[in-house]
């Protein structure tokens, strides 16, 4: 008997993430690539590459569900769901050590969101940042550029800080000039980076409190790969922040799980 | 180039922009599958006002002879204007193009409605604005008060002092005084030899009766909208009420009567406009004004149906009738004055617990699944009350989504994601409730 597989595609503003699962909800393969200008073409290549690498015939992949900012242009998708629903759905699977997740904080490239769940993983409430890059991955990206750091270096560096500086502007452009002046004043880079993380965490914590965040917090999206953000959020919310093994994959996993169970 | 040429060019550009946005919105409305022909009248009214720029026929008016009175908000009694033989035109505008021009005189944090109306008054050209000989503006919120002051550079403005503590005795006294002052003003407005008519009991009775018929049909429309299987889309109904601003009351009433008859027939034959599986949404907060139907359109495109709203340019506009039994002028004036002040739950009033009562009643009557709370940027009073409304709804377990936006179309995609997620959430809540019952 041939196996059936399910795929979820999370076509975000910065990266396309894809997850391939078998019918027992085991993760078979995953991939992520920069979205570029052709999210549809990128995702087709990703699915084809994952299928080939695992020796799966293309027609064994069923019910592809797309989510993320460019979800509507993914031609392989049988259906689309919002990022909110996908992340909510992925939470239980992604949760490390089967912790009961009641709140998902997703920090993506272009937006951040807080999703509050009830005990059955159903969405109770959600909040998203307004049309502005403050509190998103884009905020970190531009500030990393000013500091001549790669975005992956931010987390480890900030954890070395003993005295985070304060970055007051939430606007990317103003924050950039603030960082430039801190660099000019020869402040330590780890303190600047920690300050950036605290500024971002404060903004997200305010949104989370307003949405009614409950303990049992899962940090997903690109932000989940940054240990500095997890630690700053922990301080800002006074709650434990749990980070899944593949934080960026949570939306795609959720989409794949939705494809598996909903018809 | 002469200055007058430059002004003329600017006017042409504005009118072209306004006409294009209005035409796009009308096309979107007209192309909704299954649109009954009875809706065409309302679309034609909006087209006459914003696309063809020829509103007089729909207002049953002669542009060179009749008196036109511009009004803002829903607390200026149109009965008085009709009784003075004049034509009321509501000028609360929804055009993005003119809101940019209005920013010359309205601060950045001012609301888009005031910016838009300001822009259309400053840059002459759109007839619904230019026709008005005088503009009556109530002092409801900060923005309307200052709008009146700024507009007086372009128009004759008549301010109506609106008391904010509705239940107080002094408020009733102030309001009655204001109504009589407005009456006296309307009787003396002049234009090209035409003068406002003397408002007497007979003319008032006729105006009250005409408006009452409109209100009765409006309530009938609302009760048809409460059907389990939706008979009309919310964005269509919004256009119906919006059109009241630019149509003669009697022609509008005839058209709504025909529409209601049609909807009743659709109910009878079990031919609903939408299926009953859609989450039922109530829009609270700031008004949606043509051509800015962004919010109801997004809700319905994303899988919901707007069953009712509490907007001052929507379901609240024409809800309450005038209670006057005696055919004498004093009693009529009292009835008209009370109808415009007492039931209005605009958040510029305080205390405003009536609003929570109204929303909770609507939630029950219309079997609402979720509330979309619309805040026009800069409308501080509506935003102030969002927490009270959310808390009140928590007892009914009705979720609320607050969205803040203006007339700029640039945020449509961000709003779409949130509204879609809200509707997904309501759908899954519905299916769980159903499972729990069965």
Structure, explained:
The complex is a heterodimer of chains A (263) and B (438). Chain A is an alpha/beta fold and 263 residues long. Chain A has 2 domains: 1-81 and 249-262, ATPase, nucleotide binding domain (Nucleotidyltransferase, domain 5, 2-Layer Sandwich); 96-243, 2-Layer Sandwich (Nucleotidyltransferase, domain 5), CATH 3.30.420.40. Chain A is built from 8 helices and 10 strands. In chain A, the strands form 2 sheets. Chain A has a 5-stranded mixed β-sheet. Chain A has a 5-stranded mixed β-sheet with strand order 8-7-6-9-10, with helices on both faces. The mean pLDDT of chain A is 92. Chain B is globular and about 70 Å long. By secondary structure, chain B is of the alpha/beta class. Chain B has helices spanning 3-30, 40-50, 78-83, 96-102, 112-122, 127-130, 142-151, 169-188, 201-225, 234-243, 249-268, 294-301, 329-341, 353-365, 380-384, 386-396, 412-437, and strands spanning 68-71, 87-90, 134-138, 157-160, 190-191, 194-195, 280-285, 305-309, 370-376, 400-405. The mean pLDDT of chain B is 95. In chain B, 53% of the residues are buried. Chain B has a domain at 59-205: Rossmann fold (3-Layer(aba) Sandwich), CATH 3.40.50. Chain B has 17 helices and 10 strands. Chain B is 52% helix and 10% strand. Chain B has a 4-stranded parallel β-sheet, sandwiched between helices. The A-B interface holds A 69, 81-85, 111, 122-126, 128, 130-131 and B 399, 404, 410-411, 414, 417-418, 420-422, 424-425, 428-429, 432.
How would you concisely characterize the structure shown here?
The complex is a heterodimer of chains A (263) and B (438). Chain A is an alpha/beta fold and 263 residues long.
